[in-house]
Amino acid sequence: MPIGTFRATVLASVLVLLAGCATSTKVASTYTDDAYTDVSFKNFLVIGVAGDYNSRAQFERTVVSGLRSEGASASAYYTVVKGNDPISRKAVVAAAQSGNFDAVLVTRVVGQQTNVDVESGSAGAKASTVGGRPINFFRYDYEELNEPESISFTTTVVLSSELFSSADEKMIWAVEVSNSDAPNAGVLIDDTAASIVSRLAKDRMIAR
Fold first, then answer.
1. In the predicted model, what is the mean pLDDT of residues 68-88?
2. Fewer CB within 10 A of the terminal residue: the chain, N end or C end?
3. Widest CA span of the chain, in angstroms?
4. What is the pTM of this model?
5. How far apart, in Å, are the Cα atoms of 75 and each of 25, 43, 109?
6. In percent, how much of the chain has pLDDT > 70?
7. β-pair partners for 26
8. Do the beta carbons of residue 67 and residue 44 sit within 8 Å?
9. What's the order of all strands across the beta sheet hosting 148-165?
């Protein structure tokens, strides 16, 4: 930490910068099975893997809504299993079969990173006397201070979304979605869900 302490004005600037952050969402393909190039799906089972049940349920509902707006049928996993039941391979297979889902979409968080950028202003100096006698009046120890003009925080959350064919239980498509500076969990969920559905539609995984 730099010598000295941050003043109230600096702390205030941090709050302003945090409040003004703009959300940025990027999607990158990580896998596509060439054998399924001409295959699309009509009925999706949507699963969000998260420790917090409410966030998971909200994410599943949001993706389901997006898929339905694209003309597909879809159901949130928590509604199929009636609550916060553990997610296991056996349970997912049973749910897919019971609901006649031809595809299972699984999304999970794979990473999170926070970066702090500090932009420094002009250097100042703080002086303190050495000793207390008048003879030492012009003898000083100087400490250089570099108080930052601005501080910015960038938080990036990376999620992986994988699409499985129910017929052969094989992963056929996957993307990574990175979301930076979402002001709250609700915005993160909305932006991520919209990006995933948009990419599914672009890659023609949703039957028309």
1. 92
2. N
3. 92
4. 0.72
5. 25, 8, 20
6. 71
7. 178
8. yes
9. 24-32, 170-180, 148-165, 103-120, 43-49, 73-76
Cα(43)–Cα(207) distance, integer angstroms: 9
Give the integer Cα–Cα distance in Å for 60 and 62.
Answer: 5
| Number of CB atoms found within 10 A of residue 106's CB | 19
What are residue 150's DSSP bridge partners?
A: 119
The CATH topology of domain 10-117+150-202 is: Rossmann fold (3.40.50)
Q: Can you give the residue ranges of every domain in the chain? A: 10-117+150-202
User: How far apart are alpha carbons 179 and 156 in whole angstroms?
Assistant: 5
Cα separation, 73 vs 41, in Å, equals 9
Backbone angles phi, psi at 71, to 5 degrees: 100, 0
DSSP reduced 3-state for 146? coil
* Distance in Å from the first CA to the final CA of the chain: 57
Q: Is the pLDDT of residue 181 over 60?
A: yes
pLDDT beyond 50 at 21: no
